[in-house]
Every structure is written in C-alpha cells, then in structure tokens.
Amino acid sequence: MLNERPLGGLYVPVVAPFGPDGELDIASYRRYIGRLAEEGIQGLVVNGTTGESPTVSWEEVRLLIEATREIVGERELPILVGTGTNDTRATVRRTEEAMRFGADGALVVVPYYSRPSQEGIVEHFRQAAATGLPVVAYEIPARTGVRLTPEAALAILSMDGVIGMKDSSGDLTLLRELLRRGNRKPVLCGEDALLPEMLLAGAAGGFLASANAHTARFLDVLRLFREGRAAEGAARFEELQACIRLLFREPNPAPLKWLLARSGAISCERTRLPLVGITDSLKRELEPYIPAASLA
Ligand SMILES: O=C(O)C1=N[C@H](C(=O)O)C[C@H](O)C1
C-alpha cells in the first residue's frame, strides 16, 4: 500500500487505447499493461493527462482501474488514479470510488479553470485527503491556470493523507523552496525533460509519460542517479532527450500513442477530439524512436 512505503522511482502514466471507432479498447489495454507491469517500474498512473482524462468517462475509468488491478494482481505495483477535477465534491466522490474500484492512491490535480484562491485550493486537498485514499498532489500550472505558492504547497504536503507531490511546474523553483522550508514528503518530477535537474535538486523520481517507450532506459537513468552516478545518469538521459522533445512537440498523448501503436504495444493510435492525430512531419521524425521489438 502506498502510505506504507515512500513514493519514489518511476511511475508511468498510461494511455487509454481506443479502437478506430474511438471506443475504449480494453483488450489492447490489458496486453499493454501486462507488458509494462513486467518492466520493473515502481507504479502506474491511470487516468492522468496521458490517459486522456478530459475525454474518458468515469465509467470507463472504472473499467480501466479494474482491468489494471486484475493484471497487476499480487505484484507490489501501486496503481495511482487521477481523480482530481475542478469541483471539490466530485473529486471527493471520485477518490472514494477509486478506492472501492481498487486504486492504491489518487493523483489529485490542483483545481483548474476556476482559478481558486490558495485558501480554496488547500481546502480542496484537505477534503480529498480526508477520504482515506493516499493522495499525491499534482501541480501543473500551465494546464490549470493557477500556480501553487510554496506556503500552499507546504500546507498540502503536511496533511496526513497527502503522501507526496508530482511537480510539473516547469522549473526548479518550487522544489528548491520546499526543500529549503523543510518539506520531508517526496516530490517527483512531472516534467519529463527536466528529470536530471530535478533529481539533482532532490526529486524522488518521476511521473514520466515518455517512459512508456524505452522504459528500461529511463529506469537505468534513475538507477544511476540513485547510486550517486549523476554524470553517467545525465549522459544516459541525454540519449533520450530528442525522443522526449518529439513526444511533447504536439499535444500529449497523441505522439506517444502513435509510437506505441507503431511498436505494437497498443492496437491503434486514435485519440479523442479535441486531440487529433499527429502530423506527417512528426511521424517522420519519430520513426527512428519506434522501439525495435514488436510487442503485439
Ligand atoms: O499523465 C500524466 O500524468 C503526465 N502528464 C504530463 C502532461 O501531459 O503534461 C506529462 C507527464 O509526463 C505525465
């Protein structure tokens, strides 16, 4: 269970595979999760940004959680589920339901769009944390439209039910400030391209959509940093940077889904509108990064 062991290492936010008709393809999802679960990662994230949470219904999320639980089985591989919305009551309800459906923790994003005050955001997390399902707070101002102050972030991290934070704030300011103010809870990198810098600044790992491909190489980077071999880790990471940049050049997860579909890890690259398929020029640039082995 997540609150019994510290959050850290590599958490992979998973995609929600759709068929050519745009319907959820659970058979493809099961094969894909089965493969990921064998990779030696530290956890899975269902219904994150990469899982197209804005366009996947809550009923579909339930199917995804249940399928993930079944596949992960007895393995010690925690399942975090994105339950955060911009409505506190809905977030609480979803977090309680996710716990019943088999989640080990909830990834709760800072409430987006309504741009609440810091006080309102802290209260939002207090109510989510009171559900009993361990909560990971998710700071991603470029998507939410509001930035957590270090005081609010610290107030959230000091709550009993909050076990850590996914920091996608886009630079090292928040992470450094939390450390300076004595935060003891794990903060993980949520901005793939910044992984080495964030690990050096004290991050406990990463939530990395790009690690869906070439997973072993990301694990290697994390291992090298853990062993104190930062220069080697950074050099190994540099080999992945070109692919990471391409994966985020057009809206996530469209490039990733294309790569996964081309490798055979999922059956089809389809996203749901308003996300559309990637451009032909990006396909050409991604071609060299298609994982070699067919995983179909
Ligand atoms: O799905 C996620 O969780 C992630 N989302 C980020 C985003 O798309 O902005 C990227 C990160 O790798 C994980």
Fold and architecture overview:
- By secondary structure, the chain is an alpha/beta fold.
- It has a single domain (2-216), classed as Aldolase class I (TIM Barrel, Alpha-Beta Barrel), CATH 3.20.20.
- It is built from twelve helices and eight strands.
- Strands 7-6-5-4-3-2-1-8 form an eight-stranded parallel beta sheet.
- The chain is globular, with a radius of gyration of 18 Å.
- It starts with 8 loop residues before the first strand and ends in a 10-residue tail after the last helix.
- The mean pLDDT is 96.
- Bound molecules: the ligand O=C(O)C1=N[C@H](C(=O)O)C[C@H](O)C1.
- Ligand LZUJQKHR binds next to loops.
Condensed summary:
The chain has 296 residues and is of the alpha/beta class. The protein is built from twelve helices and eight strands. Helix content is 43%, strand content 12%.
Brief descriptors of the model:
TIM Barrel; alpha/beta; eight-stranded parallel beta sheet; 296 residues; globular; 12 helices
- The CATH superfamily is known as Aldolase class I
The secondary-structure class comes to: alpha/beta
Give the CA-CA distance, first to last residue. 31 Å
Let me know the number of strands.
8
Radius of gyration: 18 Å
